[in-house]
Write a structure and sequence with these properties.
Blueprint lengths: L1 H9 L4 H9 L13 H16 L25 H13 L2 H5 L8
Helix pairs in contact: 2-3, 2-4, 3-4
Length: 105
């Protein structure tokens, strides 16, 4: 399993680079009321890294659709996490803020 994780994240975005794009001030600077940037980064990294340890299929997960902020979307496995990281890497911050590439914590 660790080899697969390296393969999935070695050539593209990583959980860390993806989460930094979402929450760092020099990137998208996504904010949530009552949560610090450090808390958001930690929640994002933990969810992403946890998903990378779980084998599975993409199923109905589609981060490229606009789900808005009212939908509860999770990363359940390595395939979903890889697709989500690619989506974040490819989209502009304003598209992400409008509900694309969910989940965003």
């Amino acid at each position: 399993m660790p080899l697969l994780t390296v393969v999935l994240t070695g050539c593209g975005p990583s959980c860390q680079s993806t989460c930094e794009k979402l929450y760092q001030a020099d990137e998208c600077n996504t904010e949530r009321p009552g949560r610090t940037t450090d808390e958001l980064l930690q929640a994002c990294n933990n969810s992403c890294e946890d998903a990378l340890t779980q084998p599975g299929e993409i199923d109905n997960f589609n981060p490229y659709s606009n789900e808005g902020s009212s939908s509860s979307i999770t990363l359940d496995n390595e395939q979903q996490a890889a697709l989500w990281m690619d989506c974040i890497a490819e989209q502009a911050c304003d598209k992400i803020a409008d509900g694309y590439c969910s989940p965003v914590w």
